[in-house]
Amino acid sequence: PAGQPRLRFNWIAPIALSPFNPRIVYAGAQVLFRSLDRGDHWEEISPDLTTNDPAKTGNNVPFCTITSISESPLTAGLIWIGTDDGKVWITKNHGGQWTDVTAGVAAAGGPTDRWVSRVFASPHDPGTAFVAKNGFRNDDFTPYLYKTTDYGQTWTAIRSNLPAGAVNVVVQDRKNRNLLIVGTDMGVFVSIDLGGNWTRMKAN
Predict the structure, then answer these.
(1) In Å, how far are 5, 62, 72, 123, 181 from 178, measured between CA atoms?
(2) Percent of the chain, pLDDT > 90?
(3) What distances in angstroms separate CA 70 from CA 109, 110, 138, one per listed residue?
């Protein structure tokens, strides 16, 4: 509509289903959208969660957009968001209030401007989540990988002995809380001690 900001959808715009109700769908632009009827109708449930930097949004390449959405499978309405300009957010009440936890990730070593490739809400503890940042677009191949256990107030780096290579995805096993799997540009790596040590997954 006239007077409304133009929506920015990344070419890998994320869509996520609620683990509590298959009719609830989330989609990300610079704001988070929610549908309660499988996509027939949509509502905004966040403000702009990006930096909204005019230097990055004033061209034909979509930027300053949401890249990852993860709702906790333990607590309905507890949603984590990551963006391609480095922001990490959490809401505990279905989008009624949002908290920017980017500074905590930065304090643990995650540059504020690196692309958030994945946020993953733990299936074992509602306050725990994992964040991967990806710097290959900046010729930075550091494996940025972090964990919080207090709803994003503080973060810990868990890249340990991961080799250089951008991290694209992180997953915590749904049965074994100590088992993490990451996919990087160098391959698939597994940790059986919550990121203390990593082993490359190979045949046999």
Answers:
(1) 43, 37, 18, 12, 10
(2) 85
(3) 22, 19, 25
d(CA 96, CA 55): 29
Q: Compute the mean pLDDT over every residue in the chain, rounded to the nearest whole number.
A: 93
Identify whether the C-beta of residue 17 lies closer than 8 Å to the C-beta of residue 24: yes
pLDDT classification of 136: cutoffs 50, 70, 90: confident
- The predicted model scores a pTM of 0.93
CB neighbourhood size of 204 (10 A): 2
Which tokens hold the place of 21?
Answer: 């109700």
**What's the burial of 164, exposed, middle or buried (CB within 10 Å: 0-12/13-18/19+)?**
exposed
How far, in Å, CA of 23 to CA of 160, rounded? 39
